[in-house]
């Protein structure tokens, strides 16, 4: 709402929380709430003068949140919104100062932001002042927790209420498109994303620069899912450069890491997949000796090139990880660790991938990110499948958990992936008919979201062969 965020000292003056105003309030209970809010803001101000490190950043946020609670108890919701916009002065040189709500999102405290916003919204009731701002924050908080279904619902409601040319509509529509793409709703999300980009270009406002980079990132993500890896790599590079040029240092991690993910996905050439599929079909029919000879002639010569590709992917992911350490972003580190684990699995070292996979899961559970949790469960399920029959029960529990979460949050692309992973599981349990039924169901699910190209069919068949009769060392 406000273009200029206030620090705690300025906020005390802005809200008039001095002794004279505090003690002119006649209601004793209300006055006590104002005094408590004043004390928390004063404490935050004093803390910044004494110490400046990451713990002081966290203490600033906690002080502001306590102040918001007491202001809501005093039914001063307008003041609560002003505190929500208050500036957290960063102690990290590469991280800019940011308003409290951005700080909470950046540090994986989306659940805390959601609770705070709901508390203010409940008090506002029918008052319109501040409601758009709060609803946008509620949607962003829901996104950060992986609840994109709620976020989509909020963005759609805002779009219904606001004029199409307004800033509010443009932002809500753009974020709606981004959510739809992330949830695998490509048939509606991609056209919406392109329309949102056109609207921003036509608006010609510098204030939309960050939003534009988010949309370009969504377009790059979709391009990656279609298998157009070279184009996706370049698009993520464009996002990285645009953010770098505009000083968006905290936004550099995702496009850089995604370039590593693209390289991991494209490390095995498509024509090589056909060879792997052929070798595994021979294994399926019991011709293992012949398949081994064929593997040495067709596949082995490319192994060193493929390993070099994985090294390039790992290097980019580690660069992104180093950037996380520079700006102390623990949540992004977990996401990158999760993708580094996929690289390790692809190198045939699934046992080494278990620890980073569990670490990523633990962090996602701590911040209640349902999408991240579901991704980690599928990864762990795949890792346990590499243990033959030793850990089949654990694999089944993890894969079912991933499937259920993805269904609950309406992650269509993720659900299709979970169904495919379950087809591998049933094969190893000896239930071959059910395995083939799930393979067909997964293929149909990809068709339902508009993702069933010839490349995808080849990928599905190769994955199925690799994870049933093959070496279980390729994850697409």
Describe the fold and architecture:
The protein has helices spanning 8-15, 19-22, 28-50, 54-73, 77-84, 100-106, 110-124, 131-144, 148-161, 167-182, 186-203, 209-225, 229-245, 253-265, 270-284, 288-298, 303-327, 330-346, 350-367, 370-385, 392-408, 412-428, 432-448, 454-468, and strands spanning 87-88, 98-99. The protein is mostly helical and 476 residues long. The protein starts with 7 loop residues before the first helix and ends in an 8-residue tail after the last helix. Residues 1-5 have low confidence and may be disordered.
The tally of beta strands, per DSSP, is: 2
Helix-strand pattern:
HHHHHEEHHHHHHHHHHHHHHHHHHH
Strand count, sense and closure of the main sheet? 2 strands, antiparallel
Structural category is: mainly alpha
Average of per-residue pLDDT values: 86
Rg over alpha carbons: 25 Å
